[in-house]
Amino acid sequence: MENEAAAAEAVATSPAQGTPGTQQTPGTPGTPGAPGTSGKRFRRRHLLLGSLVGALVLGGGAALLWWLPGEDAAGGKAAAPAPGAVAGAAVQAGVPAALPDLAALVEARESRVLAHPEDARSWAVLGAAYVEQGRRTADAAHLYPKAERALRTSLKVRPKGNAEALSGLAALADARRDFRSARAWGEAARKLAPKRWTTYPPLIDAYTGLGDYKKARTALDRLMRLRSGPAVLGRAAGVYWDRGWREDAQAALSDAAAGASSPAEQAGWLERAGQLAWERGEREDALRHFQEAVRLDPDQRAAQAGQGRALAALGRTSEALSAYQVALAKQPLPGYALELGELYESLGLTQPARVQYDLLRARVGQEAAGGVDGELLLGRFEAEHGDPASAVRRLRAEWLRQPGIAVADALGWALHQAGDDKEALRFARIATDRAHGGAVRSAPYAFHRGMIERGLEKDGPARRHLQEALQINPYFSPLQVRQARAALARLGDEPAEEKLPE
Q1: In sequence order, which ranges of 158-282 are alpha helices (DSSP H)?
Q2: 3-state secondary structure of 17
Q3: Which residues contact 479 (CB under 8 A, 6 or more apart)?
Q4: 163-175 and 200-209 are packed helices; what angle lies between their axes, rounded to 10 degrees?
Q5: What is the CB neighbour count within 10 angstroms for residue 355?
Q6: Residues 6+ apart with CB under 8 A from 293
Q7: What is the spatial distance between Cα 456 and Cα 429, in angstroms, rounded to a whole number?
Q8: Could you tell me the pTM of the whole model?
Q9: Per residue in 246-276, pLDDT tens?
């Protein structure tokens, strides 16, 4: 009876352990494709993805029927999988899962641990499912504490040899943007089970969040030696993109989408491919990816927000506003509120913009109750729309905790907005120079550096970086694109002595 009562308490909603918004370092958790893919190869894979998407549109998804439960290879009836089995496989592999399947998995695992509170593996699976549910629904305040309770219960039940719970805690810390804790849990899991391939994806995210791109690539190499398939390709795409290998990243996502084992998984990879297309300024291609992702998985809210981004760039403003509103209604992430607010502001609609900015602040506060570190997003917002001095304080502290490239860019921009261009340029260089790890080609990063250099009267570099931003993605922001064009107009043409020989 005592064990059953403890299990019921762990399954129920529980407060987060520790102070919300602080970084928690776990105790001693163990005792308690080659780069440089050619353009030709990329185009072949890009065509493969296009053909796949076309086949799905024309065939109503018939290309995916082979994986559906209930049919075996000979066409006869096969045994139906247990409730949540599809989501269980997806969650453990770290790939997208459908929300109804996740709900079935959670229900099945909750029943299991209530009946068998000493089942450490079921506790670990339940915790991982809560993390994915929280990510997909933006209900961090409710689900992330439940995930932590389930995963810690798994460790309590089986304190030794429990790599599943350690990896789950690493994934939870990544979702909370607590990359130091994610690294600690992930490295403990790797030490315990170095040949367990699912140990490496949370570690890659943790190293990336901390700006340690060399270790992220080493972890990816180990992962690729242990495993192949869509989950690994999707993870590789992120590492390739951070290193500036855009075609490799797109090719990896094309292959991941082609090899996906469920509509929800395929939709997840298509959404990622849409993001990459968007960041390259390919608005029509991005929109096609986002639309197909939503068709395959109507709960793919990130793709719906992506549609809003692409539609706004195409001048289809009413449709863009509607897409953002649909995404926010079901997955109220503060980042979506920021994007929608800036779109309203670009249209001169200041009151609706303020409503979204108020929603952003409220959502960051709610997520903090679930242990999510929202300082990066809040710093970005305050630098552009609120109090730049407050943004600098927040982002300096964030840089000390987890010095990733995104934090360097945000801190540089906040310092510029606060009037300190000299120090701002130091961080802008970290975000954009390959020598510092800033290999990703980012239009916002180039824009920020260009504007900082303009403030320092470095007209030549400023002109080059502003031009680069518009070349990478001419639609990267409804507000900042206008600023970039206006700044270039004031800088005028490049003097003959500044021009480089062809």
Answers
A1: 163-175, 179-192, 200-209, 213-226, 230-242, 246-258, 263-279
A2: coil
A3: 342, 345, 346, 384
A4: 30
A5: 15
A6: 267, 268, 270, 271, 274, 300, 303, 306
A7: 14
A8: 0.83
A9: 899 999 999 999 999 999 999 999 999 999 9
Q: Contact at 8 Å (CB) between 169 and 192?
A: no
Check residue 77 and report its DSSP letter.
Answer: B
pLDDT one-digit tens code per residue, 112-156:
999 999 999 999 999 999 999 999 999 999 999 999 999 999 999
Q: Is the pLDDT of residue 41 over 90?
A: no
Please give the residue that has the higher pLDDT: either 464 or 24: 464
Give dist(CA 155, CA 17) in Å, integer.
15
Distance CA 24, CA 184 (A): 10
CA distance 483 to 468: 14
Alpha-carbon distance of 119 to 364, in angstroms, equals 35
Q: How many CB atoms lie within 10 A of CB 195?
A: 9
Cβ atoms of 364 and 386 closer than 8 Å: no
Distance CA 333, CA 316 (A): 23
- Residue written as token pair 């998804």: 61
User: Rounded to an integer, what distance in angstroms lies between the CA atom of residue 241 and that of residue 274?
Assistant: 13
Per-residue pLDDT tens over the stretch 361-403: 999 999 999 999 999 999 999 999 999 999 999 999 999 999 9
HEC profile for 137-171? HCCHHHHHHHHHHHHHHHHHHCCCCCHHHHHHHHH
The C-alpha atoms of residue 115 and residue 109 are separated, in whole angstroms, by: 10
Residue linked to tokens 């997909």 = 136
DSSP secondary structure letters along 63-77: GGGGGSTTB-TTSSB
Q: In this structure, what token pair is assigned to residue 234?
A: 């999707």
What is the percent of the chain where pLDDT is above 90? 75
Tokens representing 311 are 């539609």
Look over the chain and give the mean of its residue pLDDT values, rounded to a whole number. 85
Could you give phi then psi for residue 71, rounded to 5 degrees?
-130, 130
Q: What are the start-end ranges of the H helices in 259-387?
A: 263-279, 283-296, 301-313, 317-330, 334-346, 350-368, 375-385
Please report, for the chain, the start and end positions of each structural domain, with discontinuous segments joined by +: 332-372, 375-498
* Number of helical (H) and strand (E) elements in the chain, helices listed first: 25, 0
Distance between CA 166 and CA 127 in Å, rounded?
11
CB atoms within 10 A of CB 397: 12
Are 377 and 346 in contact by the 8 Å Cβ rule? The answer is: no
What are 191-233's pLDDT values in tens digits?
999 999 999 999 999 999 998 989 999 999 999 999 999 999 9
Residue 282 main-chain phi, psi, to 5 deg = -95, 80
Cα 166 to Cα 120, 150, 184, 253, 370: the distances in Å are 12, 12, 9, 28, 19
Q: Tell the CATH superfamily of the 375-498 domain.
A: Tetratricopeptide repeat domain (1.25.40.10)
